[in-house]
Write a structure and sequence with these properties.
298 residues; DUF7007 domain-containing protein; alpha+beta; DUF7007; five-stranded antiparallel sheet
């Protein structure tokens, strides 16, 4: 297995060289913008104090004349203007590295786990990315697939584009840009923590991996009542009516119960769900705001 050395686009030398390819400015609507070749980026407020990265292509207007309606793509949340500028520089470095690769886009007749291939990108011999009408991913030849660590190796050599692509990128890092390797490292850390730990030679701590944290949450709360659905109560002001099951498994046949939880408290629930505290959250058997439950009770 090839180890991946993460040379991020945020390294000082890379920042210096990539920044030369970015034109920064302020839009006609007053928000920060950046142009990288034919790509236009904007830091736009969502109206609630948060910002997101917006992008557009082939907008030739001067940056000072750009307005919000020129952007049509949402590329995720960004903390502030400093993070926006860094993201723009990373994008410029990513594009610079891409231009040095010999990736070939072509059409080939291929059946994938996600349907017929509509467009293929050849990264190298035996490493091909396929796009279909609804999904896509990589296919590795048998020889290439043997280079993937056995713990995450796909028997058929197929690796879908949502998370498994990271396995390909970390196995063949020289075929990916620094930004792509950075994204692959994060994807593997969150989705394949055991593989990541083996690759990096250290254990992940709490808060570093979504999947590992989720497994720990499920272990600790296996016998607790976890909310599986909730609705604002129309019978009790300031309360949220919830359904809960032991362990929070929606598919299990285990008993389910209803509880009332204060709105503010439920709004602070953790990323893996709300755990009922039997000492504070009383079971609720009175009229329900859930339509299905009301019909059942009738």
């Amino acid at each position: 297995m090839n180890g991946a050395s993460l040379t991020s686009a945020t390294d000082p030398v890379s920042i210096s060289s990539a920044a030369d390819g970015v034109e920064f400015g302020t839009s006609a609507d007053g928000f920060p913008v950046a142009r990288i070749g034919e790509i236009l980026l904007g830091l736009i407020s969502n109206g609630s104090g948060d910002f997101f990265l917006a992008s557009a292509w082939r907008i030739t207007k001067p940056l000072a004349e750009v307005r919000r309606h020129h952007f049509y793509r949402h590329d995720g949340r960004v903390k502030d203007e400093a993070a926006f500028r860094l993201r723009a520089i990373e994008t410029a470095e990513h594009m610079r590295e891409l231009s040095a690769f010999s990736r070939i886009q072509t059409r080939m007749s291929a059946s994938t786990p996600w349907g017929g291939s509509q467009l293929a990108t050849i990264y190298a011999e035996g490493i091909v990315s396929h796009s279909t009408s609804g999904h896509g991913g990589f296919h590795l030849s048998p020889d290439r697939n043997l280079q993937v660590d056995a713990s995450v190796r796909s028997a058929g050599g197929w690796y879908e584009e949502d998370s498994e692509w990271a396995i390909v990128a970390l196995t063949f890092p020289d075929l990916f840009t620094g930004y792509e390797r950075q994204c692959a490292n994060e994807a593997a850390r969150n989705t394949f923590p055991d593989y990541w730990e083996k690759l990096r030679g250290r254990q992940l701590s709490a808060g570093e991996s979504w999947l590992k944290d989720r497994a720990e949450f499920d272990r600790v709360h296996a016998d607790d009542w976890i909310v599986i659905s909730a609705i604002i109560s129309s019978h009790h002001s300031g309360m949220t009516e919830v359904f809960a099951k032991r362990g929070g498994n929606r598919e299990s046949q285990r008993e389910e119960r209803r509880f009332l939880v204060p709105h503010e408290e439920y709004g602070r629930r953790g990323r893996f769900g709300f755990v009922i505290d039997l000492a504070r959250h009383a079971a609720y058997d009175s009229p329900s705001s859930f339509v299905g439950w009301s019909a059942r009770a009738a």
